Amino acid sequence: MKKLFLLFMIGIFGLSCSQQAPEVLKTSFSKKALLQKVENEDGKTVTIQQILDQHKGKVLVLDFWAGWCRDCLKALPKAKELEDNNKNIDFVFLSLDRSKEGFEKSLEKFEMKDKENYWFASGWKNDFNNYIDLNWIPRYMVIDQKSAIAKYYAISPEDPDLQATIDKLLK
Prior knowledge:
Order of helices and strands: HHEEHEHEHEHEEH
Structural class: alpha/beta
CATH architecture: 3-Layer(aba) Sandwich
Subcellular location: Cell envelope
Domain Thioredoxin: 27-171
Keywords: Cytochrome c-type biogenesis, Disulfide bond, Redox-active center, Signal
Signal peptide: 1-21
Number of domains: 1
Organism: Chryseobacterium salviniae
């Protein structure tokens, strides 16, 4: 009986922890989501809207990650390759590290200090992440030159649709 219960619990836990593609692939952000605040490395607070405004007119990739996330760390070399192969677009890294200290340590440890980094001080559950159905990391989004969502859901920097979306936007 204990074995059966254990198998049941593992099955339930496994189902609840897997990355599921959202049913609706959004093409724009809600006003409430855009008001979500994040912190940069210096502790300055900005909104998602301010970040998008800084990159308006350019193709932007949002990379959601954390230093504690094994899948994110495994993807880092390919994410760097995506960035290196697309020097003409912008990348913003949104950290879901659990503390400011963890965020700072991750940036140092994984050589991210030379990139544009922000941290969700409010934690995983917030208006922006809830709106985009963030249920797992890593996650990648492509934002077009007018700040609309061009690629809503990619879980790997090697997703061929990610590069195809970038290429299409640059034509």
